[in-house]
Amino acid sequence: MKKILSVAAAVLALAVISGCKDKKAAEPTTASNAGVIKVGATPEPHAAILNLVKDDLKAEGIDLQVIEFTDYVTPNEAVESGDIDANYFQHIPYMDSFNQEKGTHLFNAAGIHVEPFALYSSSDASKAVASVADIKEGASIAIPNDPTNEGRALLLLQEAGLITLKENVGLTATPIDVVKNDRKIKFVEVEAASLPRTLSDVNAAVINGNYAIPAGLSAAKDGLFVEGSSSPYVNILCVKEGNQDKAEVQALIKALKSEKVKNYISEKYPNGEVVVVF
């Protein structure tokens, strides 16, 4: 009898363990429990916009937790690993390039705004220029060193008439793709977050909006040459593929596409440093 009971207990325990494994395997990777959403963002404007809607989500029973990052790689790795639920800092070409390079599964859940790139003059009076035409032979220009943003910066310089790139090189452009450089411009490749700090060391720099704004730079007022508002580089709410339909993600998208956010952006950035796309 004891032997029969022991066998039965073993079978039952095995069934319970197997059931737990099956349940765990079926659960999607997530950084939080129901009612909580963790979102990584660069400080401005992204984190500021997210913090603006925290109370709106709280009223729906959702705790929005904003985690600030100062680089572009870590928040994507955190979404892929499930340490956070989403991030808000990047545009679609960068996400696509990251997926291709890293083998990640990042997904565009919603487009929110555009931050036009701009070329800014040096903060050192001895190196500063008043216009694109004043950029002299041998001038140094700092550009982002990350994929897509470097190509985007070079395309802006081409649009400004400073260089010519290989035909159809697009966002994959690097300085080696420059086929015409009459002013013999020297390109200084710098991590995007450090670009504002390089302005005293170079004659000019192409700076991403989310790093230009905290540095007190206005594309409309300070830019020597500014990317058009029709830019395809829309900043998105990014999640891991498969998580885009979660209730918390959908609630956040609704909050980010609200009149409250639209009005905040138009009042906070009246000179077009940030432009909504919804």
Tell me the layout of helices and strands.
Layout (H helix, E strand, L loop, with lengths): L1 H25 L9 E6 L1 H10 L1 H5 L4 E6 L5 H8 L4 E6 H11 L3 E9 L3 E4 L18 E5 L4 H11 L4 E2 L12 E3 L5 E5 L13 E4 L1 H4 L6 H4 E4 L8 E6 L6 H10 L2 H10 L6 E2 L2
Parallel strand pairs: 1-2, 1-3, 6-9, 6-10
Antiparallel strand pairs: 3-12, 4-12, 4-13, 5-10, 5-11, 7-8
Molecular structure report:
The N and C termini lie far apart (72 Å). The protein has a six-stranded mixed beta sheet with strand order 2-1-3-12-4-13, with helices on both faces. The protein has helices spanning 2-26, 43-52, 54-58, 74-81, 92-102, 149-159, 209-212, 219-222, 247-256, 259-268; strands at residues 36-41, 63-68, 86-91, 106-114, 118-121, 140-144, 164-165, 178-180, 186-190, 204-207, 223-226, 235-240, 275-276. Helix content is 35%, strand content 22%. The chain is α/β, with parallel strands linked by helices. The chain is globular and about 60 Å long. It contains ten helices and 13 strands. It folds into two domains: 36-115 and 232-276, 3-Layer(aba) Sandwich (D-Maltodextrin-Binding Protein, domain 2); 118-226, D-Maltodextrin-Binding Protein, domain 2, CATH 3.40.190.
